[in-house]
Amino acid sequence: MIPVTKPYLPSREKLDRYIDGIYEGQWLTNNGPLVQELTRRLEEYLGIENLLLVSNGTLALQIAYRALGISGSEAPAEAITTPFTFVATASSLKWAGVDPLFVDIDAETWCLDPALVESAITPLTRAIVPVHVFGNACDVEAIDELGRQHGLKVVYDASHAFGITYKGESLLKHGDAATLSFHATKLFHTGEGGAIIFKRKEDLERAKKMINFGITGPESIEEVGINAKMNEFQAAMGLCVLDEMEENLKARAAVWHRYEQALSQILQLQAKPEALDYNYAYFPVVFESEEQAVRVLDTLKENGVLARRYFYPSLENVACLNSQLEQPVSKDIASRILCLPIYAELALEVQSHVSHVIDAELKA
Ligand SMILES: *Cc1c(COP(=O)(O)O)cnc(C)c1O
């Protein structure tokens, strides 16, 4: 079966050398030398400051909320977010005692529609948690401004936005914080892992304590923290993947552009702003109807190709998230979308086969 994505496996020899180093130094976790090196390398690569490595992208969101004082532990709290995302965006809020309040997406960009945000704000709203979905830039100017006007924190779930620049600068610079996931299936990965990019140094310092149980010295515990530390093996994988990022991106870009050439005339693609420099992490396509999307999904499967219904269902339809309101645009896009296989070594024949199957189904 051809999967929708494949974890990028970097040079084994290089990884072995890092692991030899871990054995020699006998330092396995707790802000070890490789975690420190990866922090520096990522700040440089991404063109940002105040980056904190953590053990996964879901904890990145949760630590960001806590560090910014977004919490439902003392009084009821809400955060405005998008229903068109991976479940962790919303479930991480719920886990922090904050009720996710879904607001619909834009039909072209599939990101949170800022025009709908303002009227959804209530006295309980503490934050806006938008998602740069599939790496597309949210309307960051409008959302950052709404945050300022209403005194709300803005946390971007930037799990898909590794390496993306907007107007010549890292997209991760927007918001009070932006979070990344380094899960194995993501463009850049550490097996499991994640990071938070804070706007302010003092928030980074608070979060650093939080991820290490609130411990601040050999005999001092300042607050209730958690364990969200990245370990040295994760960092070693990250350093190796980062070294090969350019080749990986080049190969993915070629795959992405071939799909675009074959499919952009017959299917709806995600609309991105001119000023966005994309990372080729995903190739989502929207069909005319749910029936057509499901038919293509099934036919591809019969042909040994696993496309995926990302993101489906729209999260206001997930019962445990207790949402009250339907979000028609998100629901509609979610019902008609498929993500096609994309990874560096996807064979040319497989890719043309996928395009042919889709073309034939549309004509059937
Ligand atoms: C992958 C992902 C997460 C969760 O990241 P993990 O590292 O798997 O915990 C959160 N939000 C979005 C949008 C994601 O795609």
TrEMBL record:
Modification N6-(pyridoxal phosphate)lysine occurs at: K186
Catalytic residues of the enzyme: K186
Keywords: Aminotransferase, Pyridoxal phosphate, Transferase
Gene3D superfamilies: Type I PLP-dependent aspartate aminotransferase-like (Major domain)
A GO biological-process term: polysaccharide biosynthetic process
Molecular function GO terms recorded: pyridoxal phosphate binding; transaminase activity
UniProt cross-references to SUPFAM superfamilies, sorted A to Z: PLP-dependent transferases
InterPro entries recorded: DegT/StrS_aminotransferase (IPR000653), PyrdxlP-dep_Trfase (IPR015424), PyrdxlP-dep_Trfase_major (IPR015421)
Family affiliation: Belongs to the DegT/DnrJ/EryC1 family.
Name used for this protein in its record: DegT/DnrJ/EryC1/StrS family aminotransferase
Organism: Halomonas alimentaria
